[in-house]
Design goal:
The chain is built from seven helices and three strands. By secondary structure, it is of the alpha+beta class. A hairpin with a 5-residue loop joins strand 2 and strand 3. It is elongated.
């Protein structure tokens, strides 16, 4: 029994196949372009603005404080977490107004590795809102840190100490008077 003769399979080159299926290939490319353009147009634009804030010891020489260079990046990370977890809506409404504040999509802050710098990024519908919101958040952080440092300045601490010392002396005088009166009443009985 003789084996049937089978014609050898004819291989086409990729270009020959493309010529043969040119219409479906062009239709797929055009369809992909239409779908991609429609998707891009439906998303709208997003603008991101970034501000960088440096962490430093105000009025301090970092070389005079042991461990400052190691602690400053940790402090930057703490400040970044503060920006991420704080309620920024009142700040944005005050700085931008309620309508513009509603155009802000996200606020993130992160420390830049191996440095004492924080990057604050705001994403919004318009570039103007993104820039103004970033500036408002960064300014608020600087203001909060300055208030904290002012509240713990050496002058403020000394004033609080002197005030508390006066109050303590008055309280000790009152306790001594009360003990003397109690002793006098116990001796009278």
């Amino acid at each position: 029994m003789d084996a049937p003769l089978v014609a050898p399979a004819r291989r086409r080159s990729p270009l020959a196949a493309l010529r043969h299926y040119a219409r479906p290939a062009i239709a797929l490319v055009v369809l992909g372009a239409i779908v991609g353009t429609g998707y891009a147009l439906s998303r709208g634009n997003e603008y991101t603005a970034q501000a960088r804030v440096a962490v430093s010891g105000v009025g301090l020489n970092p070389n005079n404080i042991p461990g400052f260079s190691n602690a400053a990046p940790e402090l930057a990370a703490d400040y970044a977490r503060y920006v991420d977890t704080s309620d920024n809506a009142p700040i944005l409404i005050t700085a931008l107004g309620a309508n513009a504040a509603s155009k802000v999509h996200s606020i993130t802050a992160s420390p830049i590795p191996q440095s004492t710098v924080i990057a604050i990024e705001v994403t919004a519908s318009t570039s103007d809102v993104a820039i103004r919101a970033t500036n408002a958040i960064a300014s608020n952080l600087v203001k909060q840190v300055a208030q904290t440092q002012q509240a713990t300045s050496p002058e403020t601490t000394l004033e609080q100490y002197q005030k508390m010392t006066t109050q303590l002396a008055a309280a000790q005088t009152d306790v001594t008077k009360a003990q003397n009166e109690l002793t006098a009443q116990q001796n009278a009985h």
